[in-house]
Amino acid sequence: MAFTLQFTKGHGTGNDFVLYADPDGTMPLTAEQITAICDRHFGVGADGVIRAVRSANLDAGAAALAEDENAEWFMDYHNADGSIAEMCGNGIRVFVRYLLDQGLATLESGDTLPIGTRAGVRDVQKSTNGFQVDLGRWKLDGGEPLVRAKELKVARPGLGINVGNPHVVLALADETELASADLSYVPRIEPEPIDGANVEFVVPHDPLVTDGVGRITMRVHERGSGETLSCGTGVAAAALATRHWAGAAAPNQWRVDVPGGTLGVRMFATQDGEHVGLSGPAELVYVGTLELG
Ligand SMILES: N[C@@H](CCC[C@H](N)C(=O)O)C(=O)O
């Protein structure tokens, strides 16, 4: 059936998304439609598509409402290849900006907007640099798999970290090595994670810590989207991995430079264990209409 899709294009530090509202959950897109929309030559061009659905109108939304009855909106996230991802740290900030822009939600400074995701409910607040999101409890995941990327001469051990979605973080020697990694190829991970993983390549700044804040630079190859200018959950995983490698004296506050800008990461204690938070900008850049058949 042919239909017209009103969409908004947005990004968080250059990680870009096509967003549309489907409150009743009656307009899911097929993987083929998502791939076509995300194509940078023949479509709109994006790293992913985000559908705003009322949690009550989506099967996956039931778990969100059971966790928090105030999680009215569900972020239905798909990568550029049409695959589903559990979470998106840049996407959720842009999603909240979109809900506010569309008049679908309100959020005063200091208040919290709970958003349903496949990783669970995530709380978003306004911050000085845009929005901040509590990515919840993180965990070490999958040990230290070997990662091979084109132009890196040897396979290196990474660190598996789950922040709602799966990541493998790899430390590189310096900026030259970071720049030379060819991320137009999918990095190989051994053993291969069943659900795949996003792979982050990280270089610590020298000094690593300035004024109590850890600093790293990162590039990423995203599962289902390829190299992107930024990945919010990847930035959080990269800061967690670097703190892990740096030892007990490492800080809980980090700034992470990615090709598309800079994001903030904070680790903080809660009653149910340590959480990781992410902060950064969220921009809406244009609106459009797509005729889909
Ligand atoms: N860019 C996102 C992550 C999007 C999902 C990821 N590609 C996956 O498959 O897990 C972010 O900002 O976190």
Characterization of this structure:
The radius of gyration is 18 Å and the shape is globular. The model has no long low-confidence stretch (mean pLDDT 96). It has 293 residues and is of the alpha+beta class. The protein has two domains: 146 residues, Diaminopimelate Epimerase, Chain A, domain 1 (Roll); 138 residues, Diaminopimelate Epimerase, Chain A, domain 1, CATH 3.10.310.10. The structure holds the ligand N[C@@H](CCC[C@H](N)C(=O)O)C(=O)O. Ligand LBFN2T5F binds next to helix 3 and helix 5. The site of ligand LBFN2T5F has 19 residues, from helix 3 and helix 5.
The total number of structural domains is: 2
What percent strand? over 45%
Give the % helix: 10-25%
The whole-angstrom Rg is 18 Å
Q: Determine and state the CATH class of the largest domain.
A: Alpha Beta
Structural class: alpha+beta
Q: What is the typical, i.e. mean, pLDDT? A: 96
DSSP summary: helix tally: 5
- Give the SSE order as H and E letters: EEHEHEHEEEEEEEEHEEEEHEEEE
Number of strands: 20
Within CATH, the superfamily of the largest domain carries the name Diaminopimelate Epimerase, Chain A, domain 1
Global outline? globular
Write the layout of secondary structure elements.
Layout lengths: L2 E10 L2 E7 L9 H8 L9 E7 L4 H9 L5 E7 L9 H13 L11 E5 L2 E8 L2 E8 L1 E2 L5 E3 L7 E2 L1 E4 L3 E6 L3 H6 L7 E3 L7 E13 L2 E10 L3 E3 L3 H15 L6 E6 L2 E10 L2 E8 L2 E10 L1
Parallel strand pairs: 2-3, 4-5, 12-14, 15-17
Antiparallel strand pairs: 1-2, 1-20, 3-4, 5-6, 6-7, 7-19, 8-11, 9-10, 9-13, 11-12, 14-15, 15-16, 17-18, 18-19
The structure holds the ligand N[C@@H](CCC[C@H](N)C(=O)O)C(=O)O.
Ligand LBFN2T5F binds next to helix 3 and helix 5.
